[in-house]
Amino acid sequence: MTLPKGTPIELILLEGIDAGGTKEGALVEMGVLKDVKVSGKVVIPMGAKATGEVTKSRGASLLGAVTNKPARLEMTLKSVVLADGREIEIRDQDEDLVYMFTQENTAERLDAAKIDNLWNDSGARNSLTKIAQGALEGKNLGDQSAEVQNLAERLGLEKAKDLSTEPGKEVTMERVLQAMADNDAGGVDGVQAVLLAQAVGEVSDMVSSVDHKLRGVFKGRTIRATIGTPVMVWTVRDEVF
């Protein structure tokens, strides 16, 4: 059976990268978000690792805004690696080797109306502010996992709201908050790594939305691709299985 050239593969970042902060040449780990099938049979499973390399990283600055040199964050796509070591080469939709992160494809995916509704509750607003400020300072918010869990449930965050706060589980809210602080979903593999990244992405979007409410959004801001950011790629050639 053959997986045709140009087959789309949905990936998700397993670590965060940002313009100017991540060094050029840094390797980027991603995971396959959904099974890829041929005639009903899975040929590329959810959780398979994918790789890229940061090839352009320039942060935003006032001088850059004046000289028309905005933030840039680009990644050279490499491959999806299967369990047997086989590599499936990947490109963007235009068959370009370089994937460009932008303000649009790294923007938070949280429904703004849900944040607005919660923001009108003074208690929730205080909790959101405290958690967002702690996360942006790089603090591990593990001791606030129950509070974050409650906010996730109220916001209807699909993955984060169903996480356990009990220790012993592989993917818990405490583990999500640790991954946010580390900027890395390491320590788990396969499907669990993808589930962790999805939950981290949801909580990161919540933090980003609150930050925008507190500080506003300015045009020259940097580009930040958090854990959980989706990356859409396509296969380079026909792949026979």
Concise structural overview:
By secondary structure, this protein is α+β, with helices and mostly antiparallel strands. The protein has six helices and 13 strands. The strands form four sheets. The protein has a six-stranded antiparallel β-barrel with strand order 2-4-7-8-9-12.
Write a structural description.
The protein is an alpha+beta fold and 241 residues long. The protein has two domains: 2-106 and 223-240, Lipocalin; 112-215, no CATH class. It is 31% helix and 26% strand. The protein has helices at 62-66, 112-119, 122-136, 145-155, 173-182, 190-215, and strands spanning 2-3, 8-13, 17-18, 27-32, 36-38, 41-44, 49-58, 72-81, 87-91, 98-101, 224-225, 230-235, 239-240. The strands form four sheets. Strands 2-4-7-8-9-12 form a six-stranded antiparallel β-barrel. Strands 1-13 form a two-stranded antiparallel sheet. β5 and β6 (41-44) form a beta hairpin. α3 packs across α6. The protein is globular and about 55 Å long. The mean pLDDT is 89.
